[in-house]
Amino acid sequence: xxxxxxxxxxxxxxxxxxxxxxxxxxxxxxxxxxxxxxxxxxxxxxxxxxxxxxxxxxxxxxxxxxxxxxxxxxxxxxxxxxxxxxxxxxxxxxxxxxxxxxxxxxxxxxxxxxxxxxxxxxxxxxxxxxxxxxxxxxxxxxxxxxxxxxxxxxxxxxxxxxxxxxxxxxxxxxxxxxxxxxxxxxxxxxxxxxxxxxxxxxxxxxxxxxxxxxxxxxxxxxxxxxxxxxxxxxxxxxxxxxxxxxxxxxxxxxxxxxxxxxxxxxxxxxxxxxxxxxxxxxxxxxxxxxxxxxxxxxxxxxxxxxxxxxxxxxxxxxxxxxxxxxxxxxxxxxxxxxxxxxxxxxxxxxxxxxxxxxxxxxxxxxxxxxxxxxxxxxxxxxxxxxxxxxxxxxxxxxxxxxxxxxxxxxxxxxxxxxxxxxxxxxxxxxxxxxxxxxxxxxxxxxxxxxxxxxxxxxxxxxxxxxxxxxxxxxxxxxxxxxxxxxxxxxxxxxxxxxxxxxxxxxxxxxxxxxxxxxxxxxxxxxxxxxxxxxxxxxxxxxxxxxxxxxxxxxxxx
Length: 557
Known about the structure:
By secondary structure, this protein is α+β, with helices and mostly antiparallel strands.
């Protein structure tokens, strides 16, 4: 037997299989070309149908709705959605061809363009639809944090969307983003460590916004005694306007949060001013106090019982010479003050009437809900409440949307209502000759915002009353909340605490003359007006008038 010996190498070398390069372009067959064009036609038909349904059918439906947010969303989405549909149709059609290098890059390019269109669409939807809706909602709330956070979100969310869109855009072309993501995480960590103070101020700003110790326009007293107006609470800094020095100051939020701050605008923008007057020790205190009280009450811009103010106002606003500019000013000041006080008295009367009606409603609810509210009892409560909202200036409006019947309270075209009286009041107040140019607008904005909040709260209470089965045991609590809000946040009608206060303090002996000091305190109506200089003006005018009147009876030294 012949034996064939074969020598095997211990490490045989295997020749590598050469890589097959992807062809640049593969000529499509006639069937593929036919499929390509038929896919394009089908895609065009689908795009046209979807476009008509979305932007013509839905637009007709949205026009029947009360809110315009749906139409805004459709208008914003029209061009981006059409672009996305066209690009998706092209991508589907090119997918039917034999893959080659050119076709593959065309598909990647179409995918990248779809990413760009989607990013643009999302950013525009947020900026023009979501942010717009949030701003409208923020105007109807009493919180301050949403007024600040919404503009921040409006500027940062689109940036984040475009940043993510850029990553996916690069990924569509096959770029490996692993290293980029790692680098991005490292940069974020380094920046977070380097900006720890900025982040601390940022979170302090959030705490200030959520706790709401003050709102925009509030006058605060800083620890050093200076008065400032809150102009803006930003991400890192709070912008204050210093009244005494007439300049802006920017404090880090962390520093502001750690300080003891007195809010002079809470619960109302009134301020308590003090005056010390030395009078002759032999002066009869009751006589001096009567003159001082009348001077304070006669000034239109101080607080006190309105009827008493109207009585004494004529005494201290006499005009003997009507040709001088000062006399013209005094006449205009007197007339503006009188009209404002008369209008404010009507507002107070209406508020007291509403307050009493709401308290009666609480008693009726508590009596009816003892055994559980029946349908007839619920209708009675709703009827009582509708009578009350008529005093406010609201009426019930119902409309049918499909099978649903919606009911809400809207402003009624009535004359003798709280809303009309409030607008008459701030309009009369706006004629004050001492007002700065922006005061009438600021006053109108302040009270119109309160009116919108009142309407919102009245509607919320109406929804609770019209659907009592949800939490019928709390209906009286909801009414009490509205009463408290009217007293604390809308307007307080009690004037006893606003009356001037006068005390005798101690006697002094100087140059053989004995004097008795009188400490005088009174309220100024709104220190935020006249660029926050109103209080100083009123205090000066009251003090000057006191000295003049007291000198005439020879008791001032």
